[in-house]
Amino acid sequence: MDIHESSYQIDNVKVELEHIGEGFFGDYNEEDSKDVPLLRFYISGLIDGNWEELDDCSYCTRIPATAKQEIVDAAARFICKEYSAALKSRGMDNPPKKLGAELSWLSEDDFSDIAEEE
């Protein structure tokens, strides 16, 4: 099983999409044919010259860690753009929790047009 991860940065905002062992039912269970290894995103901000993970900005998505790299990269870009725009108006000390919860519902299908371009 090939695991794909990604990161993307816009100015002082960075997203990292990683597989940390989560699946649809909690911890990923490779023996369960209905389970899938999922990607989690983390948002960091450049604060006083250092990258710091922002509070309440880490969510598991519905994007399989086995999705094509192009899809994972597109998801990282999308999430970063959404957070970058939100943090410009709110500031690093007031990250939008609701945005993260909404983005946690992203799935591979949301980026299927990327895969169709190949």
Describe this structure in words.
The chain has helices spanning 69-90, 97-103, 112-116; strands at 6-10, 13-18, 22-23, 26-27, 38-47, 50-64. Helix content is 29%, strand content 34%. The longest helix has 22 residues, at 69-90. A hairpin with a 2-residue loop joins strand 1 and strand 2 (13-18). By secondary structure, the chain is of the alpha+beta class. It is elongated.
Helices, strands, pairings?
Elements: E1 6-10, E2 13-18, E3 22-23, E4 26-27, E5 38-47, E6 50-64, H1 69-90, H2 97-103, H3 112-116
How far the N terminus sits from the C terminus, by CA atoms, comes to 21 Å
Mean pLDDT: 91
Number of domains: 1
Total DSSP helices: 3
Low-confidence stretches: none
Within the largest sheet, what's the order of strands? 1-2-5-6
Shape: elongated
Task: Report the strand count.
Answer: 6
Order of helices and strands: EEEEEEHHH
The helix fraction, in percent, is 25-40%
Radius of gyration over C-alpha positions, nearest whole angstrom: 14 Å
Can you summarize the main beta sheet?
4 strands, antiparallel
Q: Structural class of the secondary structure composition?
A: alpha+beta
Strand content: 25-35%
